[in-house]
Amino acid sequence: MQLAPSQLGRHLERGLKSLYTIHGDEPLLQQEVLDVLRAHARTQGFTERSAHMVSGAHFDWSEVLAAGGSMSLFADKQMIEIRIPSGKPGKEGSLALQQIAEQAQGNDAVLTTILLPRLDKATKATAWFAALENCGVTLQVDPVERKDLPAWIAQRLGAQGLRVAAGEEGQRTLQFFADRVEGNLLAAHQEVQKLALLFAPTAQSGGVLTWVQVESAVLNVARYDVFKLSEAVLAGQPLRVQRMLEGLQAEGEAEVLVHYTLAEDIRALKRVKDAMAQGRPLPLALRENRIWGNKERLFERVLPRISAPQLAQLLQAAHTVDGIIKGLKQPDWPASGWQSLHRLALDLCRLAAPPKPASSRATHASV
Predict the structure, then answer these.
(1) Strand 2-3's sheet: what is its strand order?
(2) 18/76 same-domain check
(3) Domain check: are 65 and 161 in the same one?
(4) Mind listing the pLDDT tens digit of every residue in the chain (367 residues)?
(5) Buried b (16+ CB within 10 A) or exposed e, 339-350
(6) Given Cys at both, which of 118, 121, 255, 270 links 25, Cβ 3.0 to 4.6 Å?
(7) What CA–CA distance (Å, rounded) separates 130 from 101?
(8) Of 111, 140, 169, which residue constitutes the final position of a domain?
(9) Does one domain contain both 53 and 97?
């Protein structure tokens, strides 16, 4: 049984199951789902809890299996939490998880919760994950995308009795907040709590936060990864791309990894464009080049805007930047690897950017 985290509260009103699997790469949201389960379980008499961390290929699963089959001396009901940070339980773990799933059916005295990272399609097709899904409840914790982050922040502020000003000023405040915490949801949560302490709602303020208050209090704790950079470039967001590149440089990310990500996108765009020129339909060309998910949607939007000669120029530029990163000097290019990466990323970003809306100003023919 699959559930979205937002459905968990209503699900628990109908009764607690014996097995829950939580998977996703967002620690804050995963912990919040786990806290809801724990709190509800305590109201149902689950007063004892044991935790197991699966580390390495030689983990002893017999202790976990024994925990589920033994009665507690101090409580009639017990919670067992199993964390598998790698998402790969191994052969022995796979068999153990299938056994745990079978034991969970009809066992109201033991609540088993399994915590996993984000799982790929192949892992979700394994026998052990299928057993967990068929015998219990699975909850996929998805990250908050950048476009949804301002609304998420507003909702969290609302839970603290706070809100931003109405209109354009409030939207600007939320966008600023989102820029400061992008990629670091736990820090975003902590910044919201800090604002609640600094500017607790009063009768005078009504809980309204000003731009100055947020700007002075919220730290720059954003964290970026090269995969999100790729999405920002293809979405045609130059200011965000520049901010992300500066953040990656400050965090010590390897130039070669950033270059590989940008170059691979350019190569993939070129391959799909060439396939389309040979008569392949766009959906087929994307599948053949293993482009799917969010990147598939970005490619579908970008490809009609970029010509084959422009992609050829970008491909040559990527080759030039590769040489600069390796210490070669190139005429008309910055000597710095990071500066050349900025130029390459922004060149692609400008071509991928959506067209600017036409001016609303009416034009009149001269008489």
Answers:
(1) 2-3, 137-140, 19-23, 110-116, 77-83, 46-53
(2) yes
(3) no
(4) 889 998 999 999 999 999 999 999 889 999 999 999 999 999 999 988 889 999 877 788 888 888 766 555 555 788 999 999 989 898 899 999 999 999 888 788 899 999 999 998 889 999 999 999 999 999 999 989 999 999 999 999 999 999 999 899 999 999 999 999 998 899 999 999 999 999 988 767 788 998 899 988 888 888 888 888 999 999 999 999 999 999 999 889 999 999 999 999 999 999 999 999 999 999 999 999 888 888 899 999 999 999 999 999 999 999 999 999 999 999 899 999 999 999 999 999 999 998 776 554 444 443 2
(5) ebbbbbbebbbe
(6) 118
(7) 10
(8) 140
(9) yes
Task: Indicate the Cα dihedral angle 32, 36, 41, 47, nearest 10°.
Answer: 50
| CA distance from start to end of the chain | 72
Contacts of range 316-324, beta carbons closer than 8 Å, 24 or more positions apart: 317/343, 317/344, 317/347, 318/259, 318/262, 318/263, 318/266, 318/267, 318/344, 321/259, 321/263, 322/259, 322/263
Angle at alpha carbon of residue 19, lines to 93 and 90, rounded to 5° = 10
| Contact yes or no for 351/305 (Cβ under 8 A) | yes
